[in-house]
Amino acid sequence: MSGESVTLDLLKRKMEQFAEERDWEKFHSPRNLFLAMVGEVGEVSEIFQWKGEVPKGLPDWKEEEKTHLGEELSDVLLYLIRLSDICGIDLGKAALRKIQLNAIKYPVKGSSYNVSNTSNSS
Length: 122
Ligand SMILES: Nc1ccn([C@H]2C[C@H](O)[C@@H](COP(=O)(O)OP(=O)(O)OP(=O)(O)O)O2)c(=O)n1
Description:
This protein has about 120 residues and is an all-alpha fold.
């Protein structure tokens, strides 16, 4: 591997090149990419299922299990990046904006974090 730093833009260009070289652009439609991404999320679920809660850093996992997890997480990321690109969304910009929106929605000052503060609790 080269010493170039990994950016969303680099990964985007590599996915574009990967598809071009194989003449796979025709398969990389928004719907196909979305479904492929969800399939890879399922593969991540398979890795965690039946293990119960696992400590941060996965200290008890074998090296090959961690490598496998890294591969499946990468598949999710790569499809997400390609999906965003094909949809004409600048994912880096969109994510930065979303972080700003999150900070406005969940201000730090005067609010001790509480699950009941979040909209995903009912
Ligand atoms: N039409 C395709 C097929 C694959 N890929 C790329 C993106 C993913 O990073 C990876 C997915 O490859 P597989 O479908 O072979 O999935 P896995 O690597 O997870 O293999 P398996 O499902 O056998 O575990 O390859 C792609 O860009 N476009």
